[in-house]
Amino acid sequence: MTPILPGSTIGILGGGQLGRMTGMAARTLGYDVHVLDPDPECPARSIASRVITARFDDAAAAAELARSCDVVTLEIEQIARPALDAVAAITPLFPGPDAVHVIQDRIRQRTWLDRHGIPVGPFRAVGSADECADAVASLGPSICKAPMGGYDGRGQVRVKTPDEARAAWKSLGSGRCIVEQFLSLDLELSVLVARREDGASVVFPPAVNHHVAGVLDWSVCPGPVPGAIVDHATQIGHAIAETMGIVGLVACELFLTTDGRLLVNELAPRPHNTYHHSERGLSTSQFEQLVRAVCGLPLGDVRPISPAAIANLLGDLWEGQAPHYADALTVPDVRLHLYGKTSSRPGRKMGHLSAVAASTEEALERVLEARRRFSGRDS
Predict the structure, then answer these.
(1) How far from 216 is each of 198, 311, 351, CA to CA, in Å?
(2) Distance separating alpha carbons of residues 226 and 289, to the nearest angstrom
(3) Which of 42, 77, 93 is the last residue before a domain boundary?
(4) Residue 278: what pLDDT?
(5) Domain end call among 134, 156, 181
(6) Cα dist. 367→50, 132, 328, 364 in Å?
(7) Shared domain check, 344 and 195
(8) 3 state SS of 163
């Protein structure tokens, strides 16, 4: 492709924190930024020269965005197919509509992975309460997930028995769901692949991640992962990006089971929470890399320059008192990253802390200590 050079305009479908941080990287490289988001106070509003306030299923509004942009990317996959197609008919959209359409639905995504020989855990796609119960009877303890949305632990229910499965089916209320066998895990990790339209690609070093109640709590990079697992995870990431024809980014969340299997959990065609430390610890951040990839610029080096860690800051820390911002920043080599959200609520991602150090263990200790101070527990 002919490179889309600085001075051009990048459109972003979605104006959340990922859109904000991508837009900040684009502006640093000299691009203008336009955004579409249903929230008139979305975090990206402060960095975009134009914001179209519209739903993600509004094809006319998506087309309006496309007409003002030289290229469009996205920071959330839940964009309706007609809106994706409307953009792609006017200006380059990366990743493309077909890839996003597959990834945005868990049933389509898991079926695609299985069909292409990508390792996944046992699962069943079901369309009724009885089918859900039968799946759990066959698979044993499982997680029932709605096919669309449901980030950060929402839209999923852990079940052990067929009766619990029927209740989960009713509570999800989606008309379809995917039942995934509960796995015994040794490690949760992720890889991030950046790929250009000409097929050039790089894979970021694996991150090791820790979740609490389905929400990412902290992540470190490069993760303490055996070399053979690093190689296998890298191969999986490459295979997914190449086979799906990704242009931009695709994040691959992976499970390492206690019996040594490396399995794909979920994909995301966008920047990912588990690579926020790339702004501190890697030669090229995921946000700059996305801009480079969709604009056809040379991809940046992704070698580690320092062990790094991040810890999420959820809205719970704003309940009852103001956070202790200054106290958190007394920890050496810690930075505060706030997303510009105007209201907090329990479980909402308001920002994160990052730390670098001589080792991943020390980086993690620093960022968790900073979060303790942020919460006021050590002040």
Answers:
(1) 33, 8, 12
(2) 26
(3) 93
(4) 98
(5) 181
(6) 35, 41, 9, 5
(7) yes
(8) helix
Contacts of 377 (CB under 8 A, 6+ apart): none
CA distance 352 to 277: 10
Angstrom CA distances, 274 to 188, 211, 228, 256, 297, stand at 11, 11, 21, 16, 24
Same domain, 214 and 298: yes
What pLDDT score was predicted for residue 379?
Answer: 45
Q: Give the global pTM.
A: 0.95
Instruction: Judge contact between 260 and 39, C-beta under 8 A.
Output: no
* Number of domains comprising the chain: 3
What's the residue count for the chain?
Answer: 379
Q: Is the C-alpha dihedral spanning 72, 85, 91, 249 positive or negative?
A: positive
Q: How would you classify the pairing of strands 71-74 and 142-145?
A: unpaired
Asked whether residue 305 falls in the same domain as residue 174, the answer is no
User: Are residue 15 and residue 154 in the same domain, yes or no?
Assistant: no
The backbone torsions φ and ψ at residue 346, rounded to the nearest 5 degrees and listed phi first, read: -55, 130
Q: Give the structural domain span for 191.
A: 185-375
168 and 41 both lie in a single domain: no
CATH of the domain at 141: 3.30.1490.20
Would you give the distance in Å from CA 139 to the centre of its chain?
Answer: 28
How would residue 152 be classed by pLDDT, with cut points 50, 70 and 90? low
| Angle separating helix axes 81-88 and 59-67, nearest 10 degrees | 30
Q: Where are the alpha helices (DSSP H) in 251-359?
A: 278-281, 286-295, 325-328
What phi and psi, each to the nearest 5 degrees, are found at residue 328? -60, -35
- CA of residue 196 relative to chain centroid, distance: 19
CA distance 16 to 349: 10
Please tell me the predicted confidence (pLDDT) of residue 148: 86
Helix (H, G, I), strand (E, B) or coil at 290: helix
